[in-house]
Design a protein that fits this description.
Blueprint: E1 15-16, E2 19-20, H1 21-27, E3 33-39, H2 42-51, E4 58-65, E5 83-90, H3 100-116, E6 123-125, E7 129-132, E8 135-147, E9 151-161, H4 177-181, H5 186-200, H6 210-219, E10 226-230, E11 237-244, E12 250-254, E13 260-262, E14 266-269
Parallel strand pairs: 3-4
Antiparallel strand pairs: 1-2, 4-5, 5-9, 6-7, 7-8, 8-9, 10-11, 10-14, 11-12, 12-13
């Protein structure tokens, strides 16, 4: 193990996705690439590495997660060989703005995946999902923390479904990349994820400019759909998804009401 990785409890693997760690480090032009066979969570290990001083752009990959999670602590199925489970650690110069981080990451990931896999047609579902063929293709989990109580760092984890026949039978509403465009190498999908995350997150914006909003508008899966906004134990609010604000908030227009900003809670289709 490297000195930075010495604090970790998991044993590093020598390869991932058919490529050696040395080849991955050369391809992504950095030494801070760490691969594992079976770990609880790539985000947890990326955070541990960041706390130990790993540089911005550190990459953590695994074949299988035993405690993968999504937003709100929901579990994320991560069986071996079914998908790409990758986290990156960044050290942004300014404080990040939730939920803008996951919106920005989602747009850049969808853009890169669509460019590399023609016909995929992936889109962004606020606040942190990637969609294809109206089903869930992947998810994003962004977490922030401070190293030694001082320097802020950002950890962004991404899970992309690649092979549907390896997903558990109880996973519903999901789609895999292979269902949309045919077989794909895990390492090619991971390369798209790294390129997408590195497009803007090293200098994570605090608001979206007009060109960024235009791009988001084209990839916004929820726009002009009737949705239910659920927040804690309150009665769900029904409205029309009207786009996303420059700070990443969802714009919701309730029936007969004024436009509302949504920054927390969950969104589901319904209420038309």
């Amino acid at each position: 193990m490297t000195d930075v990785g010495a604090t970790m409890l998991a044993e590093e693997a020598e390869d991932w996705g058919g490529e050696s760690v040395a080849a991955l480090r050369e391809h992504w032009d950095r030494e801070s690439v760490f691969t594992f066979d079976r770990i609880p969570s790539t985000n947890d290990l990326a955070r541990e590495l960041a706390e130990a001083g790993a540089p911005s752009g550190t990459i953590v990959l695994c074949r299988e997660q035993t405690a993968g999670r999504g937003r709100g602590g929901r579990s994320w199925a991560s069986p071996a060989g079914a998908g790409v489970y990758l986290s990156m650690a960044f050290r942004p110069r300014e404080a990040t703005v939730p939920p803008l981080v996951t919106v920005v990451a989602g747009v850049d990931l969808a853009r890169e995946l669509n460019r590399r896999f023609p016909g995929l047609g992936s889109a962004v579902k606020w606040p942190n999902d990637l969609m294809a063929r109206d089903r869930k293709l992947g998810g994003i989990l962004a977490e922030t923390a401070r190293a030694d109580g001082k320097e802020m760092f950002l950890v962004v984890g991404v899970g992309i479904n690649v092979e549907s026949d390896r997903l558990p039978d109880d996973v519903v509403g999901a789609v895999a990349l292979a269902d949309c465009v045919g077989s794909a190498r895990l390492v090619d999908v991971a390369d798209a994820v790294v390129a997408g995350l590195e497009r803007r997150l090293p200098r994570a914006p605090t608001s979206l400019d007009a060109p960024s909003l235009d791009e988001l508008d084209r990839l916004d899966w929820l726009k002009n759909r009737w949705v239910e906004h659920r927040l804690s134990d309150r009665e769900p609010a029904v409205g029309l998804a009207a786009g996303i604000a420059p700070d990443g908030a969802l714009l919701l227009r309730p029936r007969g009401g004024a436009l509302r900003r949504v920054v927390a809670g969950s969104i589901a289709l319904g209420g038309s």
